[in-house]
Design brief:
eight-stranded antiparallel β-barrel; 2 domains; alpha+beta; Porin; about 280 residues; about 30% helix
Length: about 280
Amino acid sequence: MKIIFILFCLSQNLWASSWSEEIQHKYPKEHEEIIQLLTEEEELDVEKYPQDLKQIYFDHYSKIAQDFVKTGVLNPDHQTLRNILENLEFKEEETEKTSEGIIAYQKELEKRVFRNDLFLGLQFISWQREVSLNSATDNNQIVVTNRALCLGGGVTRSNASYFYGIDSCAFLGSGDTKEKNSPPNYKESNIPNWGIKTSLQAGIVTSSTGAKLGPKLSSFFNNQKLQNAANSGYRLKPEEKNLFLASLFIKVPLKKLAVQTEIGTFLDQDSTYFSLGGDWNF
């Protein structure tokens, strides 16, 4: 790393010297006078200075812009050269166009930079699962509708176009089964549940304010115990605790707060998942 830093510093010095040495060799007095007048914020007599000197300034300013696009590293002398050219009123349209190109590319590079975003969140979540209620000769499906609050947080890395990250939350709630009137009769309410949901997420940034849209793949641990039916001939098939969930979510920031909603389905059966809540971004 030390060697890379030394090489970088040397390249900066070579950049600076490449144009200043040429000017010092051909027009040392004129250059010194221009720098002094600009430092003192005095107006330049543009007709006083030779065209060749102005062209040297312009050529090196253009070279800096070209090298910036190639390497992504901007020579710090670009501000000095731009100031000189603007005050000399030389090739004003070309200078302005080159300046705009440098600024536009700076913004483009900034958009590519990934930044970390930490957040805490609280979600209301709801999901359904089908549970088998079986006898020796019969197979029935019981639908369990669950509700819970899920508290957690996560981290995302995002730039102006894309993001990826991980989040996790612990939930606590309850569920109900839809009443089954035909044999075997079955109904259960307020069945406690708790668990942990951990998600990998990725997608696109859809607005300049940082709204995000993308898929999630989640590990969903759900601990819930249902009672067997009163009819002793039927037994509930134990529900899987470790589940996987595929979903689509959207997150809309409101300064430090963000509103998030998610809808998906479990991979082992066609049952739904929904969440709505908010995040606090650090």
